[in-house]
Structure formats: C-alpha cells, structure tokens
Design a protein that fits this description.
It is found in: Mitochondrion. The chain is mostly helical. It contains 15 helices and four strands. Helix content is 56%, strand content 4%. A two-stranded parallel ribbon has the order 1-2.
Length: 277
C-alpha cells in the first residue's frame, strides 16, 4: 500500500510521466503501478529526474523496460512455480564435485561444468535431478516427481537459451554455470557441508534472479504492443527509443499452447528484433 503522504505526491508524478516522450500505453502502465506502490513511484521519480537533469535517454529505456518487461509482464507459469517451490527444488539441484575432474580423461567433454561453460547442448541431457545429501530435511516434497523434473528442466532450458546468447542478457553478460560446483579444500578433501549448503542457496538465487528479473521472457501481448509502437511511431526518435529498450526481447514461442501445463517451453528471439535486422 502507498502511504498517505506519498499518495499526495502521485498527481504531480503522473503529470511528470505524461510530459515524458513516451508512448501513451507506457505512460498508462507507469501511472497505474505508481498509484499502487511507493517503491515503484520512487524508481520512476528517480528515472524522470535523471532524464530531466541529463537528457539521458537510457533513463527512458529503463522506464520502458520496467513497464513492459517487468511490471506489466507477469512471470510465466513455470517461473511462478520456481518461486513457490524454490526450497524444494534446491534439494534436487544438480551439482558436480571438482575432484571428479581429476578422474576424467577429457574434462572438456565429460565434465558437466565444462559443458555448461561451452554451451554444449549435452549439458541439458546430462542433468540429473536427484535428492542430494545436503538437502534440507525440513522441506516437505509437495511436487509430484513428474512435475518436479519438468519444472527443473524448464528452468535449465531457459538458462541454457540465455547462456548461449549473451546479447539477450542483462549488460550482455555471459551467465555463470548454473549447477553447483563443489570445491576442494587445499588439502584435497571436499568443502565443509555447511559451506556446500550455502552454495546451493546462492546458486538457486543466482539462477532465479537471472531468469525472473534480469532476463524475463516477454509475453506475447507485450511483444505485439511493443511491435505496434515501433511500427506506428510517428517520430524516428521514439521508434529508436523503443527498439533500444527492446533489444534483449525474447519470447516463449509455445506460450499458452499447453493445456496439460507440462509441455517444455520453447524460447526464441522476439519478432521485434528480427524486424529491426
């Protein structure tokens, strides 16, 4: 809820939003979310201040991204389940001992970590989702096995898609390996169990942040909206602005085509990018 004092500032913020060189649909989304959240209002106000002070169009790109890629772009079903069942999924998260590389004749082709680093498609087929010895026994398994495996496969499939194309990632950053790599101590034995458990916590958090916040897939309706804005923009400056804001857009190609809810998602670059090539 927005506090009373902050609510009094909303009309002034709405007027500032309407003065921005943004499409009306973007302005509507920003205004609606500012009315419901003081935190989002603060983020919008900061971007407006940056734009007015520096004439920095990156501030406008950020507003477009927040409006159409985050705030008005809900998580796909499998990421909502990831959010709900993340502790349970963590108990089945794939891992690899670093010491296992010592027994491999060709780690580059045999190691799961190296397969992920090289974006080798075998990285997906060699994943195993089995309850590990560092699992949290206080977490009750609520997902049927089939759903749990499907959910983990969907998560790693999206991650592999993004890792294979850093241009679609936040800051064009190449994503780290998503599995837990269990390190060796200087004396050659494995790290302590408490440290390994923390590695599982951190790794699932990193993957969640990469998929749900930094690089969320674009819903079909938002892809159409942004495509229409770009195609029908009356000025070249607005067309360029929305193209830049959408330069990392990608979609779930089979979105909404799975009545069972267990079909593997298929990812691909957005038509917005293909049109601008």
């Amino acid at each position: 809820m927005v506090s009373r004092n902050f609510q009094e500032l909303i009309p002034a913020l709405s007027r500032s939003i309407r003065l921005l060189p943004l499409h009306l649909e973007t302005q509507k989304v920003l205004e609606a979310h500012c009315r419901d959240s003081s935190f989002k209002s603060l983020l919008v106000a900061q971007s407006i201040t940056e734009f007015e002070r520096l004439s920095d169009h990156k501030s406008l790109e950020l507003l477009i991204y927040r409006a159409h890629f985050l705030w008005d772009n809900p998580l796909p079903p499998y990421l909502k389940r990831f959010q709900l069942h993340h502790r349970e999924l963590r108990n089945y998260w794939p891992y690899e001992y670093q010491r296992s590389l010592l027994d491999m004749s060709n780690p580059r082709k045999e190691s799961l970590s190296y397969l992920w680093k090289d974006c080798n498609v075998l990285a997906l087929s060699r994943l195993r989702f089995e309850k590990h010895r560092w699992a949290d026994d206080d977490v009750i398994d609520r997902l049927p096995q089939e759903q749990g495996v499907w959910l983990l496969q969907s998560i790693f499939l999206q991650y592999f898609f993004l890792k294979s194309d850093p241009r679609l990632c936040y800051n064009n950053r190449k994503l780290p390996v998503p599995i837990v790599e269990i390190p060796l101590r200087p004396m050659g034995n494995d790290a302590a169990d408490c440290r390994i458990r923390n590695l599982f916590r951190r790794k699932t958090a990193v993957v969640w942040n990469a998929l749900a916040w930094e690089n969320r897939p674009l819903l079909a309706r938002n892809e159409k909206l942004l495509g229409d804005i770009i195609a029908k923009s009356e000025t070249r400056s607005m067309k360029r602005l929305y193209r830049r804001a959408s330069r990392r857009a990608y979609v779930i190609k089979n979105e909404g085509k799975d009545p069972s809810g267990l079909q593997m998602p298929e990812f691909g670059p957005s038509e917005i990018l293909l049109r601008s090539i």
